[in-house]
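Sanity check

After download, print the first record. It should look like this:
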Amino acid sequence: MRHALFILAGLLAAPAMAQGVPDDLTTMPPVSDAYQPGTTSWGDPDFRGTWPLNDIAELPVNRPEQYGDRYWKTEAEIAAEQGRVEALEEAYQSEDERGTIGLGHWIEYEAGSRRTSMIVEPATGRLPEFTPEGIRRSALMRSSWTAGQTYDWTSDFDSWDRCNTRGFPASMFPFRYNNGIRIFQSPGFVVLNLEMLGTRIVPVAGQDQPWPAGIQGWFGNSRGRWLDRNTLEVVTDHVQPGASVFNMATRGVPPNNTTPMSDEAVVTERFHMVGPNTITYEMHYSDPVIWQGDFTTRVDWTRDESYEFFEYACHEGNVQVRNYIVANRVEREQEYARGRMVDPVDPNAAPPPAMDPASRGVGRNTQN
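Expected structure tokens:
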């Protein structure tokens, strides 16, 4: 079974500049273009391999206020994390000794990142504010991660709840597990296989041509091109709605899985191969309808060919959508009976009769 890898000790021992950490912790060096990867048999830079995101799973998108204007943590701040890392290692080892499986086996990441946040632009290290329209659309979004909402039909759940996709660009950010990404290449295409729900297919030939009319994917319409000997640029638009821009379980993002996207959103990614085992991944996000400004994230991906993909069997036996509806309707009926609700549960509300009758709530005539 996979386990969390904790690399804090190695970071503490390594020279600062070997990690690319500048003396001025308020600066972010440019991405290096010195490394030239090998090429495929048809001549494209070879990015093929397994690139799990576990080593950045603890890195927040938004910079915590304690770090001020710094992109980087101090040596003392990294050292202060060592106790927590050791405790997590001990918890994992204890689970193995007892033959039990608990949190240590679920939360997979490498701790000890010197970065303070994923965001590199704006320099504050924080997401811009929503526009008034962004606030309005966020309030209308539905998700099982949102407290206090009601559930009557599948439209009360987002695409992740329904096991379709975590969404885009959300799927390019780490979760708490199933963080694997595998890159495959063939002439004219780069394919990113995601361990959790989905595969992105990126054409890299004829990149100036739009996708055929009428074709729309959960991950949008992506066009790629090789900028130079070590960089792939991918521009994506026409992302299918239904998922939050960020998933709740990615650290340092807006709450409730209700970060909206408009049809004006454009995502520009750059995959820089900066070493034989490192890709620097940059993502520039623009959506003027929702956000008061653009933002850019930058993280490093580390190759790990020993990483194993595990099936994310979300659909099989998935009773949770129905269970949410059943439980919520029962709760509302009970609250109404106690006089705590103004209106009764509508007996004609979804789910329709075609669904399991048990999902229509208690006290109903399921023969109708």
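If your output differs, re-run the checksum step. Summary of this record's structure: Residues 320-360 form one domain.
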